[in-house]
UniProtKB/TrEMBL annotation:
GO terms for molecular function: ABC-type oligopeptide transporter activity; ATP binding; ATP hydrolysis activity. Gene3D superfamilies: ABC transporter type 1, transmembrane domain, P-loop containing nucleotide triphosphate hydrolases. GO terms for cellular component: plasma membrane. Coiled coil: none annotated. Residues 42-324 form the ABC transmembrane type-1 domain. This is Multidrug ABC transporter ATP-binding protein. It comes from Glycomyces algeriensis. InterPro entries: AAA+_ATPase, ABC1_TM_dom, ABC1_TM_sf, ABC_transporter-like_ATP-bd, ABC_transporter-like_CS, P-loop_NTPase, Type_1_exporter. Residues 1-21 are annotated as: Disordered. Residues 358-593 form the ABC transporter domain. It is a multi-pass membrane protein. Keywords: ATP-binding, Cell membrane, Membrane, Nucleotide-binding, Transmembrane, Transmembrane helix, Transport. SMART domains: AAA.
């Protein structure tokens, strides 16, 4: 149980957008996520085929009606064929309408499944993967990128499915009407196809740049919104406006490049389509004049030409969307295919027999890309019923050490054990039940005071919440709120002060009742009196648990059972306040910088 567990799979190397967009990404993604919707997809295809065949039959009926009814003045024939044409048209409209409905439903279902899987995957990511992708990029991938794929799929199911049937069927029927004039269509189609090919070639790199620009503007917006108080405090509105203007200009320029490509080749294809219609009318007029073609056949031929060229144009609309959807699929696939660097073990330990003794042995850790390790050979023991404090200068590695204990990162060397079991062998749910971390930056979710506290235990009663609030010295201000536990909290906890936010975060962890409590400088926003009252309440209410406290203030940790002094990632000393003050130069220097000699003693 205490041996070193197998190392988790290494994370895949970060790919560039170019590497994340293989040709098969979107095909593979669609094949995988359309499989559960195959029945609806099959129904959409059948309805599109019926609708397209019906629309192809109408021009032939119209030609017969003109040639044998209108031209000869046979009213009965006109009425009879007109009624049949109306019936075929109703079938075409109904089939096409239902095909659009089921196609859109299929695409939206795919989008729903993609978002759910992407969210689930991000939930499994450790801090390493979050740093690699970045929050703005992940948000863009879950929203804009999925929207690109869904939009392209809607267009494909409503337009691209009908295009080959309409093109091939229209060409065959046009050929049956007049073979020589069909040559005009055969000459026009390759020209439009070349235009489509150029669109695809030009749009792929432009789309990659555009998606990166969207990431950039989302990053600026997110930083501006979350850092608005700092911006106001330093009166940096102008600087932030300049940053946004630059990101906005880059996105605008990228969008214009994409728009210019679409406009140029779209106009080119449209021009050739119109020239084809002119050529058909010109040649057809001559053939009608010499009696080799009937006017009804010319009308039908023009209709088929419009359908064929329309099918090609519809295909071009899909192909215009395809490059952006392809890039988006690659970016989504990159997230879905990334193996989390911290994964649940194959056979995890799900229960612990002890009371929660924490042992840190020879721990070394270095952040990805860093030249030097943040922690080197760190040892620490936190026993149930005792308080262990960690103190050191800024950058000594205190917060990193606390993040390693609940396995937010994995150690490079050494072991972190709870009751003799390495945390890398423990089930993630067991870690959450056993180790409670109050982070340095307390974060509250949008909701109510009660819903935030129940993150610690969803089944906690109101009495449990009030007990935790009493211990955290937060019951007073919560009772003073308009709705008590039902008072609405803004996202991030912006509707409460920093000290209130810290106490609510402490109460949230107390609700979970873990065996080991980790307080990462969690009392920094509290005044001295509240700090002392809180520590006294903790000593009383969680006396049986192991506590590890990281703090900057000596007054917060001087009464701890054991104090660990970190200096440049190494343990510089361990002992009580009096022992370290007498024999540890690093600790003595920290104490002397904060307290007078009389206060220190």
């Amino acid at each position: 149980m205490t041996g070193k567990p197998p190392a988790p799979p290494a994370p895949k190397a970060a790919d560039s957008d170019e590497e994340a967009s293989p040709e098969g990404s979107i095909v593979r993604l669609l094949a995988e996520y359309l499989r559960p919707h195959r029945r609806t997809l099959a129904l959409t295809v059948v309805l599109q085929i019926i609708g397209t065949i019906a629309s192809l039959y109408v021009p032939t009926l119209n030609a017969d009606l003109v040639n044998h009814g209108v031209a000869t003045g046979d009213t009965a024939y006109v009425l009879r064929h007109g009624a049949f044409m109306l019936a075929v048209t109703v079938v075409q409209i109904a089939a096409s309408g239902f095909a659009v409905y089921f196609g859109a439903r299929t695409a939206m279902g795919l989008g729903r499944d993609l978002r759910a899987d992407l969210f689930t995957q991000v939930q499994r990511f450790s801090a390493t993967e979050m740093d690699r992708f970045g929050a703005p990029s992940l948000i863009t991938r879950a929203t804009n990128d999925i929207t690109q794929i869904v939009t392209m799929l809607v267009m494909a199911l409503t337009m691209l499915l009908t295009a080959p049937i309409a093109a091939i069927g229209g060409l065959a029927l046009a050929l049956s009407l007049d073979v020589p004039m069909t040559g005009v269509l055969l000459a026009a189609i390759p020209v439009v196809a070349v235009a489509i090919a150029f669109i695809v070639i030009a749009m792929v790199p432009a789309s990659r740049v555009m998606q990166r620009c969207i990431d950039g503007i989302n990053r600026v917006m997110r930083e501006h919104i979350t850092g608005i108080r700092v911006i106001r405090a330093f009166v940096r509105d102008g600087h932030e406006q300049q940053r946004f203007s630059e990101a906005n200009a880059e996105l605008t320029a990228a969008s214009l490049r994409v728009g210019r490509v679409q406009a140029f080749f779209g106009a080119t294809a449209m021009m050739f389509g119109n020239l084809t219609s002119i050529a058909i009318v010109w040649i057809g007029a001559g053939r009608i004049a010499d009696g080799t073609m009937q006017i009804g056949d010319l009308i039908a031929f023009l209709t088929y030409a419009g359908m064929i060229l329309g099918a090609v144009m519809m295909s071009m609309g899909v192909f215009m969307m395809a490059p952006r959807a392809k890039v988006a699929a690659g970016r989504i696939r990159e997230v879905l295919d990334t193996d989390p660097s911290i994964a649940n073990p194959a056979e995890p330990v799900t229960e612990l027999a002890g009371l929660g003794e924490l042992e840190v042995e020879g721990v070394t850790f270095r952040y990805a890309g860093a030249e030097e390790a943040v922690l080197r050979g760190v040892d620490l023991v936190a026993r149930p019923g005792q308080t262990t404090a960690v103190i050191g200068s800024t950058g000594a590695g205190k917060t990193t050490l606390l993040h390693l204990i609940p396995r937010l990162f994995d150690v490079d060397a050494g072991h972190i054990r709870v009751d003799g079991v390495d945390v890398r062998e423990m089930d993630r749910a067991l870690i959450a039940r056993t180790i409670g971390l109050v982070p340095q930056r307390a974060y509250l979710f949008s909701g109510t005071v009660g819903s935030n506290l129940r993150y610690g235990d969803p089944d906690a009663s109101d009495d449990d919440l009030w007990r935790a609030l009493e211990t955290a010295q937060a019951a007073g201000f919560v009772r003073a709120m308009p709705d008590g536990l039902d008072t609405v909290i803004g996202q991030g906890g912006t509707t409460v002060s920093g000290g209130q936010r810290q106490r609510l975060a402490i109460a949230r962890t107390l609700v979970a009742r873990p065996k080991v409590y980790l307080f990462d400088d969690s009392f920094s926003a509290l005044d001295t009196a509240t700090d002392a009252a809180l520590r006294a309440a903790l000593a009383r209410d969680i006396a049986d648990a192991a506590q590890v406290i990281v703090a900057q203030r000596v007054s917060t940790i001087r009464d701890a059972d054991r104090i660990v002094v970190l200096d440049a990632g190494r343990v510089a000393g361990t002992g009580t306040h009096e022992e370290l003050l007498a024999g540890n130069a690093v600790y003595a220097e920290i104490v002397n910088s904060q307290l007078t000699l009389q206060e220190a003693l």
